[in-house]
Amino acid sequence: MDKERIKQLANYVHHAEKEKREIVKITAELYPELSIEEAYLVQEELVQQKLEEGKKIVGPKMGITSEAKMKQMNVDNPIYGYVFDDMIVEDGGTISVSDYIHPKVEPEIGFILKEDLEGPGVTALDVLRATEYVFPALEIIDSRYENFNFTLPDVIADNTSAAGAIFGTVLKRPETLELDVVGVTLSINGEMKALGAGAAVLGHPANSVARLANMLSEKEEKVKAGQPILTGGVTSAVHLTPGDYVHVKYGGLGDVSFLVT
Ligand code: OOG
Ligand code: MG
What we know:
This protein is of the alpha+beta class. The chain has one domain (3-260): Fumarylacetoacetase-like, C-terminal domain (Fumarylacetoacetate hydrolase, domain 2, Alpha-Beta Complex), CATH 3.90.850.10. The chain contains six helices and twelve strands. The chain has helices at residues 3-19, 36-52, 67-73, 124-130, 152-157, 205-217; strands spanning 57-63, 79-84, 94-95, 104-113, 131-141, 162-167, 183-188, 191-197, 228-230, 238-239, 245-250, 254-260. 47% of the residues are buried. The chain binds 2-oxoadipic acid and magnesium ion (MG). The site of magnesium ion has 9 residues, from strand 1, strand 4 and strand 5. Pfam families: FAA_hydrolase. One of its GO terms (molecular function) is 4-oxalocrotonate decarboxylase activity.
């Protein structure tokens, strides 16, 4: 795939994000043969375009790390993308559906490292040793594709549907919790919509960070200390509509909430 094609595909998803407009997935017509490797090149170009516009990377995110998400999205492999500074919403804050295309929310467990992690061969134990804090988080995903319908290369090229992140304020040392048995409930206007436990994320959320380090090592990149890392949805994602008050509780890790208008 030549540089022109990479630019064309990055522009295609980037414009859709800016204009809050659904597009037909890349693999439907534009470029059916898009491979996973090529899709990451498109993502890199999209990330570069955002950086050139003055946006800053907050941290990496993993996606499709749980059975619930694999089933819901009909794709079956972990992927990564990036959260940018203009996507951050404060805990207890308000978002407007009109700022997105068709937003959904999903609960996640976040990590902040005290040391960089460089693959290959990184294990969950390495991750836990290198972790400064774990924290509760919500991700707002907003696939630029019609009906959230995509293949793995499509969603990679679309920066893995990244659109928003809300970080909870509780920071815990990793050894004070068993993250795999941290329970999570997501309620909207007092009604429980989804539930899960940390183990839903590749058996333990630390496995997700290890996987990220090992995937990034293929590009000779590492997971950096100090950046918040999202490990992937614990439950399936829930559609948001105006009037929703979203409240997510995490066993031993506090809660995170926001309002939708
Ligand atoms: C892709 C993004 C997946 C996760 O946590 O699984 C993701 C999507 O579902 O649109 O962020
Ligand atoms: Mg996610």
